[in-house]
Amino acid sequence: MPYSLDDLNSMDRAAFVAALGAVFEESPWVAEAAWDKRPFADAASLRAVMTDIVRNAGTERQRALILSHPDLADRASRPATLTAFSQTEQAKAGLNELTDEEAQEQRDLNRAYRDRFGFPFIMAVRFSSKPEILAAMRERVANDPEVEFGRALEEIYKIAGFRLDDLVEFPPSSPS
After folding, report:
1. Domain 70-144 falls in which CATH fold?
2. 23 flagged as catalytic
3. What is the pLDDT of residues 13-43, one digit of tens each?
4. Residues 69, 140, 151, 163: which is the catalytic one?
5. pTM of the model
6. Which interval of the chain is the signal sequence (predicted)?
């Protein structure tokens, strides 16, 4: 059952972190810091606060957040540790139904990407197909490391937004 904005605004710190701690992959520190910024007027303010916390966290903490994400479709090396969110997101994108050839290309691209950048390829895959994901990997592995670090964070912000949409029942926006 999704939480209401009123529920979140009235929760104590522990309950708030329990509710939203998984929004940023294995990084409950984001929800912990967001609790101090309550009350949230709407969905946009909650998203903005959580995103700003990561944006202002510094490179070391941002890198740790990026490294907390799994390699896409790499069930062989991380099946037991894949979070429920990641399992669902990857399954909806068809990444648990790769052909042998697609799985091999995915592993090769994951390895090349990690070798080049030192962190996993991150993409908000919720509305992407297997071919779109593979094409993005092929393209992004050639990026400049600084550009790709920023891109990884932007993808994480998208993923967190999708997860918030799943966890929080936001009231409809009023017409302007």
Report:
1. UraD-like (1.10.3330)
2. no
3. 999 999 999 999 999 999 999 999 999 999 8
4. 69
5. 0.85
6. none
